[in-house]
Amino acid sequence: MSSERASSFSLLPASATPDAKRLVAARALRGLADGCVSVLLASHLSSIGMSPFRIGAIVTGTLIGSAALTLLFGLYGQRFSRRRVLLASSAMMLITGLGFLGVTAFWPLFLVAVAGTLNPSSGDVSLFLPTEQAVLTETVAAGDRTAMFARYNLAGNFAGAFGALLAGAPGAVARKYGYDQGLALRSGFALYALVALLVGAIYWSISPAVEPPDAAKPAADPGAKADAAPRAPPLARSRNVVLKLAALFSIDSLGGGFVVQSMLALWLFRRFELPIATAGAVFFAASLFAAFSQLVSVWLSKKIGLINTMVFTHLPSNVFLILAALMPTAPLAITFLLLRMCLSQMDVPARQSYVMSVVPPEERAAAASVTNVPRSLASATTPLLAGAMLGATPFGWPLICGGLAKIIYDLLLLREFRALKPPEEKDKSA
User: Fold this and answer.
1) Domain count, the chain
2) By residue range, what is the domain housing residue 317?
3) Can you give the pTM of this predicted structure?
4) What CA–CA distance (Å, rounded) separates 403 from 398?
């Protein structure tokens, strides 16, 4: 790891390198764009005449596409420099934003959704994840790993909160000045494309220190590609652990697909006729709670361990999700949704840190991909069902189904992995 420190960026752990600062900045920008379009997406699609079922299909398409790209970049991206992989990811983000900005017919838009990077969730389910997680793990000391992931997610959630709040601005401006409402809604996708350019500029500036040692060396054969890493099997020593974790994470994401932010927004619109600006304010507050809760996650994980932090914060959040579905009024439902968000993201830095800690360094990018891809695939199966449910009735059946699936995941994770501790937790107990 480079001896140069990011001391000028005091929010990062003391051992973080300047490349960590760059990746956190990129995550914040992507969070801003994701937060905005995740709230606008359902209203935009409704404004161009799509039914709840077709909206669910578009959301499903975005998640299936993200899963496929994440798998491709995670398993084969190690053959190329990490900088090139990240630049290619930002190029895909740009194409996606331009596609949603200009396309309105269902089938072409569905193809853009499948092939692109659009994130309908408040979290990060994208092809950026495997490479960024592998790089972040190597930019800090092992003892600061969970804190680094917490800051990384904090930046994304905090910016995502402002993105959700920003989602109400185009409609307000359109109403005030008499602009076309549909055109105003599409402006969020112009922001998405602009952010892709800014993120690409950040990735362009990262240093060669982010590359694996073998990839950073010039190739011995002058005719060989300089950025090609040795083609070792992506997963070898950690295969069984990673596959078991991936299966469990899939159950969690199966439930999460019912309540991705775009579908929650659609439920609030249909159940309580909530205006876009109000929904944006709700998701702004929810994202802020989720962001700052991740700092508590770092402290809690040092006290009770990563697995216990994942389970004992996630379980009550899922109870709150189910209770939100049962509430008869918008204020009560929003209260329980906000209570849920105070806890539901505390498992994220713990989960990311745990996966990176139980696999060898050379397998981290592949492990991040293999554990995130099933999550994306599983979450892609249920928005379509959630859309069908909401098309039939505005009652919160998607929230109940999502909460129950997530509770099952929590209990299985505790049973299967409580005994498998990261090296730093073993050292403490020794």
Assistant:
1) 1
2) 18-211+235-422
3) 0.70
4) 9
